[in-house]
# Entry
Amino acid sequence: MTRMLIRNVSVLVVPEHGDCRVDQAQDIHITNDQITAITPTGVGEVGEREVIDGTGLVAVAGLVNSHTHSPMVMMRGAAEDLSIEDWFNRRIWPMEVNLTPERVRVGARLACAEMLLAGVTTFVDHYFHAEQIAAAAIESGIRADLAPTFFSSTGHSTAGQDVIGAAFDVTRELSRVHPRISASLGPHATYTVTDDDLRRTADFARDEGFRIHLHAAETDDQTQASLDRHGVTPIQVLERTGVLDAGALIAHGCGIRESDLAILERYADRTTVASCPKVYLKLAMGEVTPIKGLRSAGVRVGIGTDGAAVHNTLDVWEAIRMVALTQKQREHDAEWMTLSDTLRLATRGSAAAAGLADSIGVLEPGRQADIALVDLNGPHNQPLHDPRAALVYSVRASDVVTVLVAGQVVVRDRQLLTMDRDEVVAEARELAHTLVDLSQGGAVQHYAP
Amino acid sequence: MTRMLIRNVSVLVVPEHGDCRVDQAQDIHITNDQITAITPTGVGEVGEREVIDGTGLVAVAGLVNSHTHSPMVMMRGAAEDLSIEDWFNRRIWPMEVNLTPERVRVGARLACAEMLLAGVTTFVDHYFHAEQIAAAAIESGIRADLAPTFFSSTGHSTAGQDVIGAAFDVTRELSRVHPRISASLGPHATYTVTDDDLRRTADFARDEGFRIHLHAAETDDQTQASLDRHGVTPIQVLERTGVLDAGALIAHGCGIRESDLAILERYADRTTVASCPKVYLKLAMGEVTPIKGLRSAGVRVGIGTDGAAVHNTLDVWEAIRMVALTQKQREHDAEWMTLSDTLRLATRGSAAAAGLADSIGVLEPGRQADIALVDLNGPHNQPLHDPRAALVYSVRASDVVTVLVAGQVVVRDRQLLTMDRDEVVAEARELAHTLVDLSQGGAVQHYAP
# Structure
């Protein structure tokens, strides 16, 4: 039995409703992987346990990256200033011809290092060779929900192979591999997976108890194209194929129409949406996730970065800030998406998007000890009239000092303990050119939603 | 004579037109306050001089914060989730009743520390008690252009005092105080300064060779209100009062109409606009600066943070990124506001907004040695397919390692050399409550544009 105490720390408290607050001078008691108590400093028995001094620091629930493609850090900065069509068709999908298990593992290791050092303790991933991502996550100490990506057809010959069945098998295997790893089903999108294959996915999901993580209604253009070609919105496709009934994490959803909200409301208990707004601005997608409408429909929303091939970072602090800013902009209402609501999305909302609403996202007894200790004493955060404002609008990823996942200290004094940071970076740097090589020709898919 | 060499550094080269590039393995030769040569490493005589090892670092022209109110760091996080009306009328202008020379100096010191540590070597300021800001800037080693703020009327009794004449005197005095300090005239805005007082300002500016730094057309609502009340846009006000003829730095300009562009084009050689988009989203202002139109009119645009009472940081890297993202969004064009164009705004554009187009903003012989050395080797920037992309989309202020202003090393290995960082923070923290105290009643001004 491992017992630990984070002593004399400020604690961000995020209630289900109402204002967040920061409680001063608290002790967080941890046994094994769980928080067992949070008490005023000095109250409660300490006994023999490792003590982390939290003086001057703020404890927040470890951040959750609720939608990403972690190995795409290998393409960071290699596809800039492009339309969404060119980004997919001239860069990313031709580059992904180069994916190998090794290159995916190397990318995922780098991604895990970047995220842990920034206080991200869980990521919700959607990518190829997901077993390699699991290996990197397990090694690094991070928590992950992994969805092996599949298309209905790919640019590669898949004759005679049941690519989808194989992806289902990986989901099943990954769900049993490690306590910190969960798995979901990963059809790419409503425009790259047929209705039949979505039905098959939904059936498998219901039979075996998995969630479905996929892209849908990413832009309003996609929604309009779906209406023009099929007479239904992407959300209607998700309903008629049983995906919503099985339970879905929808990435982006910027093209969700008013009329879709009534549908989503019927499945609100098992539907979540991940919002990654830096990407929507960068790709000039025209819309951001309609969080206000989703909230009215009772659908929980989380915050993510998407892949670094477009977001350029896996910095969830940046994503949180972008959600607050773009939501105020979208609603023409500076009083909307308050500090408290933003922090609630980033914690409870993202935990729900990870399928872990009951075990992470909040600092309270019985929850997993996934904790980031943040130093708000730098000149860029001071004076600290409101630590909640600092956490949304001025904190930097580099302010994260110490990080625990499932009670294990993975970052201490800004040093990654589980992997050799320099070796991880060097390995990625060495292989990076192989990922962006376009000389092979071909593409894993074509974007024409 | 002080001679210095930054050895074996990568150098960001920002041409007037076309693509930026990063030259590897360069030496930057510095004598006194100027760059004298940039050569391939090892070429050129070294002689006896201090050597800074630039291996693994990228040298960029020190960043310029082209519009801010530096002492407002004292109100960081104290006015959140408010409409622009409430932000001004219920928080900021009532709080500014509490301004004293000492509090302004303490705030400016903190602001200078924050900016220098982030690689910001020049700031363009607009605030009260500007002589205190000058003192802080001189002490810290930063470069600044300072505009003493004035209104035509204030909430304070100003009977018998020539507030505006006094502000002019401060501008005149500050312009002579130190080689790193320049000064401008600081009427607050077209909606808080009468046409007569703007004319008086323009006359003084022309007579004594000063620029005019002011807020105008901040939102389209302001433009519409001006049209409704006076039959002219704020830009037309600037023209008819002679402000444009004298030469103006216009803060924000989000409400500049298509019809205003033809006016601005006539004064393009002496007009600049500062864009601070994080603020426009946070206050739900509805628009961002129309940079595409301004560029067509030949008006140079710089990038700024505005005050930290709304931007929450003085982080110009963040402001640069927000300009790229919001401009792509505004124009519905992901291919617009490219990496190169963004970096050009951040360097040449902001230098012009500071009134220093010929002496800062570019690393080349004859320019001031204002340089930030940036470490792009962290996991969040790697692999580095394109360092320009890293500088716009993934760099953090904490990646700035070493900073020079006018040939003086002011930050080395992330440590501020000119001031005691902890003492600066502690002093600000101690006084912070006095700034946000609303018990006095009153306000320095009322927002009703």
